[in-house]
């Protein structure tokens, strides 16, 4: 009569115990098929398996097991699963609460997020280039062409940066010039007697002039865009891009010599300053032109590759020759080359948020999160673009042991709580960065992603969903959204996640069950940040 019957599919012992404590009774999830609003009749093997599961619960589970048998033919009113396909939304009753919405792939897959954030200006005044590294779906012909053009233009800008840095007497090799543990905006200046050119004879003098002309044409296009909002693409007529890129690779990746005159140095400086006024991502893009290639619908870091060469990206994605996977599944995204590092090591942050309604859009942001570290020191050397240095996913990093010389203040299990991250920021003189820059930026990015897909997601009043967004931070502490995950892992892979994952599940139930019945009750660490 109180409709306190629930179903749980997947490894969620915390959800089970919390619902039992509230006086709810568990109906066992069907062994096969989907959940619907009709009572489930179990026969033969299913009934035997259910009895075996109840026996395995031991003495502590006898009472729950007996209650489960009593509700075997009843309708579950709270359903928690690890995948939306476990039930058919069309068959659910209005009073059944489910932890998923349909069609959320619009923002929980890499390809979906890439596509829909392009449409953000239609729904919001926010600019996705300020929080989402530019991204292209390589299965779309127009986007593939746009990526190739972006790679060319980024190479030209990178050449100007390298020329300017060398002209100013700063050694620019293939590694980012930063000491381990330095905070945002800090870099190490090499010895003043260090050479400014690497192996190989000086390249043709017109290379830098060509890069300057390319960037000047691009700047003209960007100015036209600000006026007309619908610019033509820069033609770059007369540019032999194959030759240009080969020379660019020699300079940037191999350290070949580059002749820079005083006039060219001044032009580089002025042009880069003007481009930065139009390009929001110039500060994070670095000068190595590294891109990250991702399967469009996979998770846990599977299949992700970093590359600084156009031909390799296109080959891996199947744009030429035999495809590794179907072309339409790949997205390519600009790699954040100047991230905030902790003791010379890359990290990202897993941030939870909860959507309890899409009409009106209602979003809750979790006040606690955790940082995930790589296992090797950060490096942009072409031979160091490996997962151990660049992919923070726990499922990837558990394959590696921490590097020799692992800083003693870095966690052995490669996980920090957000409180530990804030303590580190305070140590490096950035005590206010978390609350004034990082958290507000993450909230804005989450809301922008949701608003861009609000018309696509299948709305259902009795549903809710918990998501996990992954962010990396620039040297200025600005957050960059990498992806949003449905059914974020609740695996207690560390001391920190064991505690936090239990808390976020507890507080999710506080919001979706307790708060619905009593708006004055505690919602734990969840903060309501948006309600239309």
UniProtKB/TrEMBL annotation:
Residues 50-63 have a biased composition (Acidic residues). It is found in: Cytoplasm, Cytoskeleton, Flagellum axoneme. Its main location: cytoplasm. It comes from the Eukaryota. GO terms for molecular function: ATP binding; protein-glycine ligase activity, initiating. The keyword Nucleotide-binding applies. GO terms for biological process: cilium assembly; cilium movement. The keyword Amino-acid biosynthesis does not apply. PROSITE patterns: TTL. Keywords: ATP-binding, Cell projection, Cilium, Cytoplasm, Cytoskeleton, Flagellum, Ligase, Nucleotide-binding. This is TTLL3 monoglycylase. The gene is Ttll3.
